[in-house]
From TrEMBL:
Family named by the database record: Belongs to the major facilitator superfamily. Metabolite:H+ Symporter (MHS) family (TC 2.A.1.6) family.
Source lineage: Bacteria, Pseudomonadati, Pseudomonadota, Gammaproteobacteria, Pseudomonadales
Xref: Pfam families: MFS_1 (PF07690)
One of the record's GO molecular function terms: symporter activity
Signal peptide stretch: none
Main location: membrane
Protein name as it appears in the record: MFS transporter
Location(s), subcellular: Cell inner membrane
Membrane topology of this protein: Multi-pass membrane protein
Keywords from the UniProt entry: Cell inner membrane, Cell membrane, Membrane, Symport, Transmembrane, Transmembrane helix, Transport
Keyword Transport set for record: yes
Amino acid sequence: GLRGVRLNQWLSPQEMGEWGWRVPFFIGCLIVPALFVIRRSLEETPEFEARTHRPSLSQVLRSIGQNFGVVLAGTAMVVMTTVSFYLITAYTPTFGKNELQLSDLDSLLVTMCIGLSNFIWLPVMGAFSDRIGRKPLLLGASALALLTAYPALSWLVREPSFAGLLGVELWLSFLYSSYNGAMVVALTEVMPADVRTTGFSLAYSLATATFGGFTPAVCTWLIHTLDNRAAPGIWLSGAALLGLLATLVLFRRRGKEIAEAELANA
């Protein structure tokens, strides 16, 4: 967001259209080496570390097939995360400019504030989920998004303003961070050890490719089709409903597995 604000101030619209829009992507790529370092330093679960056999590709594919229902439910769980993220970040400048008639600078400032909000709330809510559990946060955040996304955007399009957009987006950022702070860990916990890495990656990639990445286009299409500038709230509410249902399904399955393991050890 900050890069967008600075580039908007430094470059002309023509320069932004020709090459300026590539600069944030290039700068963003510089974080990749740090991600590898962080990943290598993370601790694995005892169950995962106890595994000494490295499965072949055919065994991985067979395990994915046997646990495809879990992967599919995991994909539905991620939909809430990826749709809300793209809505409050990638789509905000377009929504602010085209639907609320705000300036480019105002829309980019809101996007910058959302990035800062996500940066603050994600680790806080992740730590909070360590204390109270993943399920309460997942259910609470998805239920609140389901109930408030469309009403909030309906109010915003009736009374468009910089302060209004900032307030609504900060609320959605809090819900996104509350959900995602718990979801990332929850998804690894509910995945069977046989498919934990592959299943997590597949679920996240499918949700991003089929829902999150298309969010700006879907929101624009819904606005024109329904002739309703608050229609992106419908898309987010649908994603929240998927997340809520997937959480119920996966944690019910997880509870059964824990009960069966305790019974077997008794």
